[in-house]
Amino acid sequence: MSGQMPEPENALTGIIHAYSPEDRERILEAFRLGRQKSINSPLGTAAVLAELKSDADSLAALFLRDYLGSAEAAETIKDRFGKEILCLAEETAKIAAVSGMGKTVQDADRIRRMFFALVTDIRAILIRLAEKLHTMRTADTLSQEERKAAAQECLDIYAPLADRLGISWIKDELEDISLKELNRDVYIQIKEIVALKRGERSAFLDTVRDRINTEAAAAGIAVDVQSRAKHFYSIYRKMRKRSKGPGELYDLFGLRLLCETIDHCYTLLGLVHRLWKPLDGRFKDYIAMPKPNGYRSLHTAVQTDSEETILEIQIRTREMHQTAEYGVAGHWLYKQGPGARISNAEVSIVDRLRSSAENNAAENSAASRQFLEQIKRELLKDSIYVFTPQGKVLELPAGSTPLDFAFHIHTSVGQHCQMAKAGGIIVPLNAELKNTQVVEIITAAAAHPTANWLRFVKTAKARAKIRSWLQEYDANFAKKEEIPKPKTELSAEVQNEEKPEERHQLVQQRGIFKVKVEDEKNMLFRFARCCNPILGDPITGYVSRGRGIIIHRESCKNLAHIPDFHERRIEAQWETTGVPVKRFRVEAKYRESLFSEIEGAVRKYQGHLIEGRLEETGTNRLTGYFTMQLENRDDAQKILRQIRGIPAVSSIQGM
């Protein structure tokens, strides 16, 4: 009939019936727009998101992801749905573009870390988890090869990802379905044993539950005793660990005790251990020492009255239970107050993760960002992830430049790199790349490496390839290398640009200068590679996690990107041994012996060159920065006049 809704839209209307009229209309509008680019709408994933009680923005972003593909499309989404949904759709598309078929454990770990690098909104990861859960629930529609590949991908990447976010039920379901696809015989065997033992032990569990309730009531504790069966994959792991079949395992079921307070948890633990003998080595206190994903609970295993009935028991507060079940948002969803409960129908994983008009939305949104940044700091450390124009993701060290990217792609791309774009904008070849940028390299047959490139690159691969090319094709390269490598032992040490931390430490050991951190003199510190502070630069310290104090220049642009810099900042300053020190800057024409001539001028007046470098700043032009230790302060002007007299030097300036 003419007025009848199209079937897919009708199906979506059924999926989102519980949403408000305004939210339903926004989701349907996104669905219709997305259908203009793709008729294969992800209704199955939308159903999982609705099951999660995800917010309307998440469902809209899911459908709008198919509409993306051009600047005009992005502008349309922004105008009709707002910037937040546009960003969420873009981040969802980025994650979807990442290939998950890693062949090693390291590949899987890299991909999981990459997901967190690519997003600023954790809902994008939840959308991806919903997609994979739907894929596994409908795996029968795939070929056998596709099912096995998807199952392995879920075990390697997505189940651990759900575990990282603390969403245990998604992790368990992904693992169970994956086991079914990868080892169906074992899965069926475990399923049959569990079904059999469930019937045998129903009466036993009722008896145990009654005893706990009676003892808890006598102690004045309100407790909710829930029986639970282990999920199949955890049984499978236990079988492999103990080298036993499922019929030989007697702890396939357990109890979960929910109470109000932490004190009640420990009281219940003592009560359970009085009723039955605890098994040695099976007690774990995740309340005192929570898991990294925030999971908290007491775990114990006891030998009941029957020799073959081992019972595993978890004890936690109801608030802890929400975190255990719903992970990242669980602690925001718990309703405070004695005897307060929260039902599954009231739980929304992502509603509380977005900025909205709710009373404490700003606080929840900030908590979400803080949680995500904490994971990023923990996982990413010194890595960034950038895209090729074709959507491939590359992992590079933090601080990498377009040249590192080019040589990572292919040696010939690096050797013929002429210019680069990052995010569609032309950037210098020495610009630092940032997370999630799309990087494009423009090559030219006439382009080739220069010695200057060696100062730009971060990766050993790029440096080795550049040096190899220069040694083969640049006859002057060996001579140019002599510029920053004078023949004297000390100068050679202070000129090691590839190891700036080692350079400064060697000078420090010779007693020429030290760093004073606040009022302490002999503290462990390192010099930042990003800005390479040298004697005389205004400096500041950052108390890192596990690497001591990092010394940066005060003008270092990377300081703005350290999230907790202001909280972990520490005062630092240079501390000399009392002898006069002078810094100066020179501009000069290219001359092979320039460094040696400057050093000779300093030595003529019993000075010592303790820091120095020469840089190519133009065709046949050099700029140098030097630090010298003086025998007498009055000698500084004499030395500068001597250097000014060197034929290649065009200007000299004290600093």
Give a brief description.
The protein has 655 residues and is an alpha+beta fold. The protein is 46% helix and 18% strand. Strands 1, 2, 3, 4, 5 and 6 form a six-stranded mixed β-sheet that branches. It has a five-stranded mixed β-sheet with strand order 12-16-14-15-13. Strands 18-19-17-20 form a four-stranded antiparallel β-sheet.
What overall geometry do the principal axes of the alpha carbons give?
elongated
Main sheet?
Answer: 6 strands, mixed
- The computed structural class is alpha+beta
- The averaged pLDDT comes out at 75
How many alpha or pi helices?
A: 25
Portion in beta strands: 15-25%
Tell me how many strands there are: 20
Description:
This protein is an alpha+beta fold and 655 residues long. The chain contains 25 helices and 20 strands. Strands 1, 2, 3, 4, 5 and 6 form a six-stranded mixed sheet that branches. It has a five-stranded mixed sheet with strand order 12-16-14-15-13. It has a four-stranded antiparallel sheet with strand order 18-19-17-20. A hairpin with a 2-residue loop joins strand 18 and strand 19. Helix 6 crosses helix 8 and helix 7 runs antiparallel to helix 16. Mean pLDDT is 75; it is low at 329-364 and 482-512.
Describe the secondary structure blueprint for this structure.
Layout: H1 7-15, H2 21-35, H3 43-51, H4 56-64, H5 71-81, H6 83-97, H7 105-118, H8 123-137, H9 144-164, H10 168-182, H11 184-218, E1 224-229, H12 232-242, E2 253-259, H13 262-275, E3 277-278, E4 284-285, E5 298-303, E6 310-317, H14 318-326, H15 330-333, H16 361-380, E7 383-387, E8 393-397, H17 402-409, H18 411-415, E9 417-422, E10 425-427, E11 439-443, H19 460-473, H20 477-481, H21 489-494, H22 500-509, E12 513-517, E13 525-527, E14 539-543, E15 549-553, H23 565-568, E16 569-576, E17 581-589, H24 594-604, E18 608-618, E19 621-629, H25 635-644, E20 649-654
Parallel strand pairs: 2-6, 13-15
Antiparallel strand pairs: 1-2, 3-5, 4-5, 5-6, 7-8, 9-10, 9-11, 12-16, 14-15, 14-16, 17-19, 17-20, 18-19
Helix pairs in contact: 1-3, 2-4, 3-8, 4-6, 5-6, 6-8, 7-9, 7-16, 8-9, 8-10, 9-10, 10-11, 11-12, 11-13, 17-19, 24-25
